[in-house]
Amino acid sequence: MIAIYPGSFDPITLGHLDIIERSSKLFEKVIVAVLSNPGKKALFSTEQRVAQIQECTQHFPNVEVDSFSGLTVEYAKLRQAGVLLRGLRVLSDFEKELQMAHTNKTLWEEIETVFLATTKEYSFLSSSVVKEIAQFGGSVHHLVTENIAKDLVNYYQLKQ
Ligand code: ADP
């Protein structure tokens, strides 16, 4: 079974990586799919995010990185994937995730959404938290990989 892990990944965090690593043991193939959404302002471009994820997932032989735009279920059909993978951190994630899973089912009955519970150390972690800390010069080394931490430092230095 092929699983798609869709998201913004702006940028990818250790929480995302943990979900990727664990799901790669459950599925034949995991496609990490960066949503390219022109309506949502991202810090890193789609191409940069794909490259960042490729760099830190290259040691997983059954993980592929790609980008897509439009409906996730259409992308899943195109890639012949039967599962959408999402991570659950806190109760507040649940409501919007359940709504999205139900909506996707109405669009394509065959699609199943599988939720993986976060590893508890990462339950507070989101890309937004990382950006907030990095923006004010705080250390994010415990939250993202070394290369992403460098990319964040570069980004905020260039902005100054
Ligand atoms: P989106 O904008 O689609 O929510 P994100 O990049 O924020 O994209 O997240 C992609 C997926 O990863 C979501 O299902 C989200 O709940 C999950 N996720 C994000 N951070 C973590 C974490 N720390 N632990 C587990 N899952 C996470």
How would you characterize this protein structure?
The mean pLDDT is 95. The protein has 160 residues and is α/β, with parallel strands linked by helices. The protein has a single domain, classed as HUPs (Rossmann fold, 3-Layer(aba) Sandwich). It contains six helices and five strands, in the order E-H-E-H-E-H-E-H-E-H-H. The chain is globular and about 50 Å long. Strand 2, helix 2 (46-57) and strand 3 (63-68) form a beta-alpha-beta unit. It has a five-stranded parallel β-sheet, with helices on both faces. The termini are far apart. The protein has helices at residues 14-24, 46-57, 72-78, 91-107, 127-135, 146-159, and strands at residues 2-7, 29-35, 63-68, 83-88, 112-117. 44% of the residues lie in helices and 19% in strands. Adenosine-5'-diphosphate is lined by residues 7-9, 13, 15-16, 19, 86-87, 89, 93, 118, 122, 125-127.
Write the layout of secondary structure elements.
Elements: E1 2-7, H1 14-24, E2 29-35, H2 46-57, E3 63-68, H3 72-78, E4 83-88, H4 91-107, E5 112-117, H5 127-135, H6 146-159
Parallel strand pairs: 1-2, 1-4, 2-3, 4-5
Bound molecules: adenosine-5'-diphosphate.
Adenosine-5'-diphosphate (ADP) binds next to helix 1 and strand 4.
